[in-house]
Amino acid sequence: MQTIIEPRRGWFGRLGQALTSPFQPEDYLALISPVASAREIRARVTSVHRETDRAVSLTLRPNRLWPGFQAGQHVMLGIDVNGARQWRCFSLSSAPQSGTLTITVKCHRAGGVTEHLLERARPGDVVTLSEPAGEFLLPARIPDRLLFLTAGSGITPVHSIARYLENTSFDGQVEWLHFDRRYEDVILLESLRELGRHSQLNARVVLGHQAPLPGDEQGRFDAALLAALVPDAADRQVYACGPAGFLDAVSEWHRAEGRAPLLHERFQPLTKNTGNGGRIRFSGSDLATEAGGGESLLEAAERSGLNPAHGCRMGICHTCRCSVRGSLRDLQTGESRTVDNQRVRLCIHAAEGDVEVAL
Amino acid sequence: MGYAMQQEHDPIVFQRDGVSLTRSQVDAFGEEIDALRQQVMADRGESDARYIRRVVRFQKGCEVAGRGLLFLGFLPPAWLAGTGLLALSKILENMEIGHNVMHGQWDWLGDPNLDSAHYDWDNTCPAEQWKHSHNYMHHTYTNVVGKDRDVGYGIMRMSEHQSWNPAYLFQPIYNWVLALLFEWGVAFHDLEIERVIRGDKSRAQFRKEQKLIFKKVRRQVLKDYVLFPLLAGPFFLFVLSGNFTANILRNLWSYLIIFCGHFTERAEMFTEEEVEGESRGQWYLRQLLGSSNLEGGRLFHILSGNLSHQIEHHLFPDMPSNRYQQVAPKVREIAERYGLHYNSGSLRRQFGSVMRRIHRLALPSRRGAAVVN
Predict the structure, then answer these.
(1) Domain FAD-binding FR-type spans what residues (chain A) (predicted)?
(2) Domains in chain A, please, with CATH?
């Protein structure tokens, strides 16, 4: 994850550049402001809000290289773990506003970046951001009737969209069903409740493993449940975000019944159905390994002691793209194919036979 | 019989100064050095990151303070302190930060400020060009006469393998001119003018490199000799002279460290034939024997960019420089176990040795020596 961003400068800035060449004025400003940089978007953590015992919201104040974002977008966040910068992708959960942004982080596994953030993030910390990206956006003309379907940490980008709608002159109506196991697992629950108090937004939590409070529901996503809870679902433009299994179910329902567009954002991209695996040779370092069908090329490289450039580990940021030859399985679609020295994303491809990776 | 068998299966591949090593011994030596490298590289972490960022902060602070004081340069103590701080900043930036960052020692941090692909240093030599002439040519072909252009920088005779001509009689003088103008020597020697004249290098390539150098030179000159002096208004000359002096001091210091690293009398030179098809172990051997270390305190090591550990730097050019001090005793122990000379001494002793070499080689060699070119 190394995109160099250059600031725009007026004549004064250019004079500063000439005086500090070959460095940048910000390299000296960094002596007094830790977020000053001419090369990267640095942001100071201004508040840390614990959402659940496995999730935390960080409010960040970025430097002037931050271009702003649109509701529903995501961003790569970089922090230094053991000295080395690690990047992960997170949805922006706040409504776009100048000078500040919020990401909500749910910790999936121990020892990773998310756990580091959960346990160690403090106000005053400095993190690095990518430019925001993502097409999970509201159209220019916002439809009157919307349906939000979210599950797990898929609540975050939709939360940003809902907060944005709250701040605009939206006069339509939104149905929002959020699926989770228990109340303790629901991140941004307070905010969801608060949003639900608006007459235009009907937000309900659907629990899988716990008795619901009045106004909420119990069950898992399927066509029958949806028809019962939102009778006009098929005519609403749908924004869906959540784990792969959930999104597959939503897509299936939409294919059969939907009459308005569906936008979805995948969070856990990797399919569970694994292939056969194969033998991977890393041509640049003279290493080889046997990999299982569920192990991405990136994981296999790391297990072999290599440290390839990578970012989101979910196919979004393209940082890990690398030239590969051989038979691969795409872990997102489950499809296999043969490539001949094509640059593929190592994090979402596994070996399906003999593979040579230029690492 | 047994000896003949051994000769056949395990020939002697290294023989110098009464030390002979067989292929398997050289391989074993290489493996020990590799293992040392692995051990340190796996151990890199937060404290290394903290170290380099602290050096950068200190250096930037020195530069701001130095340039600030020079605006008061009409007061002699301010001029002296300002010039000293600016020289210190330039030395730290060139030696401990720039040189090492461009080697990729800090790439693992993933910090664009310390990334070899994007870094440029406060020196007239453009980073792109430096990475070619230094990282690739000098570090790969260390002390190989005819390949490593740092051997004499195209103007001096540093090895018996270079044939003598009368122009070399004046090399003690060239030496001091090079020392004073070291950054310019480094910037321009990569243009390889003599190769262009010989026709080994295309004029188009030459022009491309020349453009790159001039662009960098323009910016460096504009900053140190035009803009900062102008900002000082009536004190133009104080700032100008301070900047000039700081650049010269940095030149002298880097010249001193670099010459002591490869041109002491016992630093060995090699021919192109000798290094053809060499193994990793043999490459390590050449790095060890072609380099010499300087002894001193912690501050001295940092100011030298840890090139006081020239041997370790040449064995592990991409290892974070703050780790050289820690591996040096282990390298020395391995070298001594194989009967190899570990060239180390004080700055005074090593520089005296460099001077003797420069003066000795200014004169034709007495005995018939190998001649290259």
Answers:
(1) 38-139
(2) 11-129 (2.40.30.10), 145-266 (3.40.50.80), 278-357 (3.10.20.30)
